[in-house]
UniProtKB/TrEMBL annotation:
Mg(2+) binds at N287, D296. The gene is ydiU. The keyword Mitochondrion does not apply. Keywords: ATP-binding, Magnesium, Manganese, Metal-binding, Nucleotide-binding, Nucleotidyltransferase, Transferase. This is Protein nucleotidyltransferase YdiU. Coiled coil: none annotated. Its EC number is 2.7.7.-, 2.7.7.108. The keyword Phosphoprotein does not apply. It holds the Pfam family SelO. It comes from Pseudoduganella plicata.
Amino acid sequence: MTFDVALQHPRPFAPAAAAFPPGALKSASLRNQPGKAIAAIALPLENSFASLPPDFYTRLMPTPLPAPYLVGISAPAARLIGLDPAQVDDDTVAVLAGSRVPERAQPVAAVYSGHQFGVWAGQLGDGRAMLLGDVATAEGPMELQWKGAGMTPYSRMGDGRAVLRSSIREFLCSEAMHALGIPTTRALSVAGSDQGVVRETIETAAVVIRMAPTFIRFGSFEHWFHRNNEGNLRILADYVIDRFYPALRDEDNPYAALLEEVTRRTARMIAHWQSVGFMHGVMNTDNMSILGQTLDYGPFGFMEAFNAQHICNHSDHQGRYSYAMQPQIGHWNCYALAQALVPLIGEVEETQAALDVYQGEFATTVDRLLHAKLGLNQLPEQADADRALLDSLFGILQANHADFTLFFRRLSGLQAGSNAGDEPLRDLFIDRPAFDAWAQQYRTRLLLEGSVDAERKAAMNAVNPKYVLRNYLAQGAIDKAQQKDFSEVARLLQVLQSPFDEQPENEQYAALPPDWAAELEVSCSS
Ligand code: AMP
Ligand code: MG
C-alpha cells in the first residue's frame, strides 16, 4: 500500500532503567499564587483528574497576564460548555486568559514523561498547561485547560508562556480538525496580552483554552513504568478504563484490552491524518493522547505540493516525523505505551498481540478513506488493482508535486465518460501525459462500477475538504492579530468550520499558496 507501516523498532520488552530516582517528583513544590476567584463565568466545574492521588499533579494557580483581550472564540466549542459566545465580557476574558480563576476551579499541572524524537527524555509534565477542571456537556465531561498560563513545577527551562502566533495556530487547527471529522482536542478561545515573551524575537503572550475529555498521554503511563512504580501505573490505568473505556472493564484482561483499543484508535487517527495531508510535526509520546485524539498542535502543517518526505517541523532535522513516517511512528509510539503497560498486562505475548492490531487497523482505515477520496466502492475483486491505481496516483502526485488538497477536491469534477472536465486537474501537473494516463485508468475503474458522476461528486466533496489550514492562511491571520486586528482569525475560523462546503465568497482561501509561503518555517519554538 501507499504507506509502509512495518514496525521498525522491534525491541524486546526489557524493563528500562528508571530515568529518575524514585521520589524526585516530591521536589515539585506546591505553588499557590493569589488568583482572584470570580463568578463571572459560571462554569459548573468538577475536577475528576484531581481525585487521583497527589503524585499525579501539582496544585497551583495561573500567573495572571496583564490587561488580557479576546483574540478569538469558537462559538460551537463555547456552546458545548454552556457559554454564550456573544456574552464574553471582560471578566470572562480574564478567566480565559488565566488572569482570574473561576470559583470552582481547582487548577493542577499534571506530571508525565515521554520519548522525544525517539529518545527517552525523562520527566516532562505540563510545563505551561493547567487544568481548571471538567464540565458536563452533551458529549460527556470535558476538561478545560489553560495553555500558556505561567510556570509550573514542570516548566524546566521554559517560561510557562505561549506566544500569540502558536496560540492562534493551535486554536484554528484544533477547530479545523474537528470540523474535518478527525479526532482531536478542541479549542475554546485565545486570549492575548501585550506582555512580552522572548523567543527568537520578542513576541507577545497568549493563552489558549483547550478542551478534551482528558489530556492523559502515553507519557503519563511511561512516567510510572520508568520509575518502577507499578502502584501508580495501575491507579492511572484503572482511572482511564473506568472513566473513558468502561466497557473494557469486563474483558478478561482490561489492561490488554486498553492497549488494543488505544492502538486501534491511534492507527485510525493517523490514517485520517494521512488522508487529509495533516502532519503533526512532533509525534513524541508525550504528545499522544490516551484517547487517540490529535493533541498538542505545534509546528504542524497540511500537505500542499505533494512530497511524501515532507517535514513540516523545521527543528526535525532527521525527518523522523515526515508525512511518510507518521504511520510507522504511530506504531512506535504505541510500542512505547505497550512497554509501559507490560507490568499490568502481565504477559509479553498478550501485550504483543494487542500491539499487533496496529498495522491491520491502519491499512483497513486508510484503504477505506482513500477509496472514499476517489469516490470508489471497495470491491474485493478489485483490491489489488485498486492498490496499483492508488500507488500510481501517489507516484504522479509526488513526481509533479501537485497540491494535495486541490487535487482531491478537483477530482470530483472529473467525468467518468469523457475528459471534457479534466482541465482544472491537468493544470496541477507538469507532466500532463502522466496525468492523462492515470485519469484513463481511473475512468475505466469508475465505469466498471457504473459510477454516476453527480452522485460521486457529492460523495467526494463530503470527504475531500476544500478548505484546510494552510500555513500561509494561518500566517495572514497571525500578522493581522499582531497588529491587534482579530478579524482574520474570526473569518478563517468560520471558513474552516465548514471545510467541505462550497463557499463562493471565500474562494481565495482555497487557492494555491503564494510564492512567499515557501519561505515560512515553523519550528518547535512556540
Ligand atoms: P511540546 O513539544 O510543546 O509538546 O513541549 C514539550 C514539553 O515542554 C512539555 O512538557 C511542555 O509543557 C514543555 N514546554 C514547552 N514550551 C514551554 C514553555 N514555554 N514553558 C514551559 N514549558 C514548556
Ligand atoms: Mg507536548
